[in-house]
Amino acid sequence: MLIGELAERAGTSARTLRYYEEQGLVHPRRDANGYRQYDDAELRVVHEIRSLLAVGFGMDDIKPFVECLRTTGSGHVCPDSVAVLRRKLAEVDGLLAELTGLRQRLHTQLTQALAHRESPC
């Protein structure tokens, strides 16, 4: 399929696909006329990329998943992918801890404000 068809089927743009190619994530074949040709495997790769981006992974984080997908058929089973998942989970856990602390401080301030309020606003 040509780049326009892949873009349509993947729900993205040709520009985005060219960017993925520049990043080494998508590998089209080139026709004699220079047109990019993609097979269904590249569609699967683009779906994987988009799903990982949607949950907050960066482009550098995605590379191990794409390499793993190409070699094993699953992007999440290789040691490098597992390492990225562990790191990302630790990052999310840290953010949750920060948000929990912030929520507690806000709750305390609200409780104090309501307890010391003399008249309704």
Automatic annotation (TrEMBL):
Keywords for this protein: DNA-binding, Transcription, Transcription regulation
Top-level taxon of the source organism: Bacteria
Residue ranges constituting the HTH merR-type domain according to the UniProt record: 1-68
Annotated SMART domains: HTH_MERR
Pfam families from the UniProt entry: MerR_1
Gene3D superfamilies named among the record's database cross-references: 1.10.1660.10
Protein's UniProt keywords contain Isomerase: no
Official protein name in the record: MerR family transcriptional regulator
Lineage: Bacteria, Bacillati, Actinomycetota, Actinomycetes, Micromonosporales
